[in-house]
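queue> pop job 88
queue> type: inverse folding (structure -> sequence)
queue> payload:
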């Protein structure tokens, strides 16, 4: 006799590991995604357009922009709560989680960690409310995994700075009101706050993407951009600055990818229970059940890892190589789950009537950004052996 199906996370009793507050935050974000995002996201993805400003204001009202930061209108929630929010956002779409991640973990975190008190008071409350959108300029067309080779530079001219160069693959770039831009100076790698209406600043949206289509991706160009002396972030003068921001974003990805994977797996389970072949639902066949069991196992293991990392981060004990463990494993396994689910759906798996192909395409990007699979592998390899093998 058939029993009532369990959810993948229910199989692992994940709720037992969460506090009442964490479950409440998760449920609020899940309801927003279910009610607001899922009915629209396939159309946004197909059109390659997203109402970014409208969503930013809604996400600000929801309290998820910079939610793990203290003060200045930020919610001051735990790292684990932020991770759970990322999971639910990415169950909607990786582009939605990217909007939140870039706003909160990259742009806002950089200002919060390294900005002056004036910077924080000027920008963070508006960004937390979603009234001001930020972007983060580090990656260049020829310098992705090796940001130390960046060509973008800033030189002093009297009391001002003159910024020249370009950045590539910048989420939120074409809709941003402010950019946090990292540039080479005579005093090291410095971060600059650049209002996007500054003369000489140009943002060119990147089109013809097959992944993260419901996300704004841009190239930033700086042509003799003149900035006041107080545009520089005073708190850091090395790559430690942008790399610490990236660790904040990677932590969110360790949770977020599981949301996309969970949505794929639940879709595949529901589909297999209703898809009849040879007079039986395909869920009744051993090969299908093995696929579902293997995916549930990897999804649950990834969730246990993410929660462990969240607890470490909340106790200020987490190390960068541990964040690499989470990003590497969970992005890799989420992509594998999406691909397997696509197969279970057969021909229906390639249509936007179901979320699987959209998640699969998005996860191809998530697998690469915020540190490629190869770079995180080498971070872990160095931790295990003490020998850096990047060159």
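queue> result:
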């Amino acid at each position: 006799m058939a029993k009532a199906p369990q959810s993948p996370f229910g199989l692992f009793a994940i709720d037992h590991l969460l506090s009442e507050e964490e479950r409440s935050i998760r449920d609020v974000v899940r309801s927003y995604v279910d009610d607001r995002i899922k009915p629209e996201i396939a159309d946004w993805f197909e059109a390659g357009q997203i109402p970014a400003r409208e969503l930013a204001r809604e996400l600000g009202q929801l309290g998820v922009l910079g939610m793990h930061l203290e003060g200045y209108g930020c919610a001051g929630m735990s790292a684990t709560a932020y991770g759970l929010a990322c999971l639910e956002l990415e169950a909607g779409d990786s582009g939605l989680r990217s909007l939140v991640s870039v706003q909160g973990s990259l742009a806002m975190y950089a200002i919060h960690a390294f900005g002056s008190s004036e910077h924080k008071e000027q920008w963070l409350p508006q960004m937390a409310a979603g009234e001001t959108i930020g972007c983060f300029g580090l990656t260049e067309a020829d310098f992705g995994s090796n940001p130390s080779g960046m060509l973008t530079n800033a030189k002093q001219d009297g009391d001002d700075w003159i910024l020249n160069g370009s950045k590539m693959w910048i989420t939120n770039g074409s809709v941003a009101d402010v950019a946090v831009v990292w540039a080479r100076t005579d005093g090291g790698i410095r971060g600059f706050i650049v209002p996007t209406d500054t003369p000489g600043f140009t943002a060119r949206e990147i089109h013809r993407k097959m992944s993260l289509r419901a996300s704004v991706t841009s190239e930033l160009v700086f042509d003799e951009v003149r900035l006041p002396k107080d545009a520089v972030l005073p708190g850091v003068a090395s790559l430690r600055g942008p790399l610490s921001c990236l660790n904040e974003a990677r932590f969110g990805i360790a949770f977020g990818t599981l949301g996309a994977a969970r949505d794929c797996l639940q879709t595949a389970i529901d589909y297999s229970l209703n898809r009849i072949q040879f007079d039986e639902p395909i869920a009744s066949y051993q090969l299908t059940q093995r696929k579902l069991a293997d995916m549930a196992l990897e999804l649950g293991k990834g969730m246990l890892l993410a929660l462990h990392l969240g607890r470490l981060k909340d106790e200020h004990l987490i190390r960068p190589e541990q964040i690499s463990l989470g990003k590497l494993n969970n992005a890799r396994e989420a992509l594998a789950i999406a691909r397997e689910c696509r197969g279970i759906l057969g021909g229906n798996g390639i249509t936007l009537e179901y979320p699987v192909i959209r998640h699969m395409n998005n996860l191809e990007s998530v697998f690469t950004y915020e540190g490629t699979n190869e770079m995180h592998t080498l971070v872990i390899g160095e931790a295990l052996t003490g020998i850096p093998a990047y060159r």
